[in-house]
Structure formats: C-alpha cells, structure tokens
Amino acid sequence: MKGLFVTLEGVDGAGKSSHVEWLAEHFRARGRTVVFTREPGGTPLGEKLREIVLHDAMHPETEALVMFAARREHVEQVIRPALARGDVVISDRFTDASFAYQCGGRGLPEARLEILEQWVHGDLQPDLTLLFDVPGEIAQARLGAAREPDRFERERMDFHTRVREAYLRRAAKFPTRIKVIDGSRSPEEVRAQLATVLAAL
Ligand code: TYD
C-alpha cells in the first residue's frame, strides 16, 4: 500500500488533538498502520528542540530555523521511513504551521520560509492537511487556564488572529491539499466533517 501523509493544523485551542484518536482509528479500521507524530518534535533531538523553542526567548528567524532544524530530523528519521513502509503518518503540525506562526504571527517574509521548505522537504508535501479553524475568542476560551501557557499561547489575540488568517490564506492557495474543518462545531459535527473529507480520499 502507498504511504499517506496527513497533517493537522490550526491555531492553539482549535481542538485538533481531540480528534486524533478517532482519525487514527478510521485508518486502522481500514487495515492501515498508523504512525502518530508531532511538530516541533517527533524525534529525540526534535523533542529537545521543542522544549527550547516553546520556552526560550529568541529572534523570530532563529525560531523559524529551529522549527526547520527539528523538521529536518523528523522527515529523515520518522516521516520518510514510515511512508516508505506504506504507513499512514499523522503529524500534529508540519510546515503550514511555520507559514502561519512565523510568517503570519511573527511577520517573517514567506520567501524566506519557502527556501527552508525547499531545502528540508522539497519533494515531500502532505497528501492531506486538516485545518481546524475557529475564531480566536473560542480558541482562547478553550485553552483557558488548563495549564501553564507556552511562548505561543501567551501571545496576544492579534497574534492568534494573524496566525488564523495566514492558515486560511494557505488553505485558499492549496485547496486540493488543505481542507478547512469548522472547529467551532460540536465534536460530533466536527467528526461528520472529517468523515466527509476522508471519504473523498
Ligand atoms: P502544539 O504541539 O500544537 O502545542 P500543544 O502541545 O500546546 O497543543 O504546538 C506547539 C506550538 O508550536 C504551537 O503554538 C505552534 C508552534 N509552532 C510554530 O510556531 N511553528 C511551527 O513550525 C510548528 C510546527 C509549531
């Protein structure tokens, strides 16, 4: 079987994590082996870089470079081997997050990131990206006071609004790959939307 690369995206609090297990089960029920992974992270080195990039202050370009450094390991060690085995790889975030957060949120030019994208995974793109979209107020309310916020979750509302808009611009640019899921609906309604998208795969 051919490998399938699925990525999950959205602003913090969009609810993508709530549907991961359901999504994995969807593929397992069809006889597929599912590899679940995340960014930043996904490898031992990547998880160390995650700790640094989520908690240490740094220049926005350093932030982008660390994201792509972690991604370089992730692509090499986890994503490519799994796809070569014919597995379904579900990654909680990938390069669309860099365009949304580092370009949309922090204001880096997209041309810079396009160079890094080409360098790190020029010939590899997700087959399907599920973009969980919710208005900033809902996302913030969901994040609530559940735990200690990281550097991104601590950002002001206008940052999250820019991230959301950048995600939606990417969805408009790559409509075949990126499917927008209305994450403000009930979990059942979100699942129905996911089922419709997956049925068309
Ligand atoms: P995430 O794993 O969704 O956080 P959580 O464990 O809190 O659900 O993502 C961690 C943060 O990293 C998130 O705020 C978005 C940010 N991020 C970027 O800014 N750029 C990137 O390229 C990636 C992959 C994540």
Largest sheet: 5 strands, parallel
Strand order of the largest sheet: 2-3-1-4-5
Radius of gyration over C-alpha positions, nearest whole angstrom: 16 Å
Structural class: alpha/beta
Bound molecules: thymidine-5'-diphosphate
Average of pLDDT: 96
Strand content is 5-15%
- Secondary structure tally: strands: 5
SSE series: EHEHHEHHEHHEH
Q: What is the CA-CA span between the terminal residues?
A: 14 Å
* Outline type: globular
Portion of residues within helices: 40-55%
Q: Please tally the helical runs, counting DSSP H or I stretches of 4 or more residues.
A: 8
General description of the model:
This protein is α/β, with parallel strands linked by helices. Helix content is 54%, strand content 14%. It has eight helices and five strands. The mean pLDDT is 96. The site of thymidine-5'-diphosphate (TYD) has 13 residues, from helix 4.
Helices and strands in order:
Elements: E1 4-10, H1 20-28, E2 34-38, H2 44-55, H3 60-85, E3 88-92, H4 95-105, H5 110-121, E4 128-133, H6 136-143, H7 157-173, E5 178-182, H8 187-199
Parallel strand pairs: 1-3, 1-4, 2-3, 4-5
Helix pairs in contact: 2-3, 3-5, 4-7
The structure holds thymidine-5'-diphosphate (TYD).
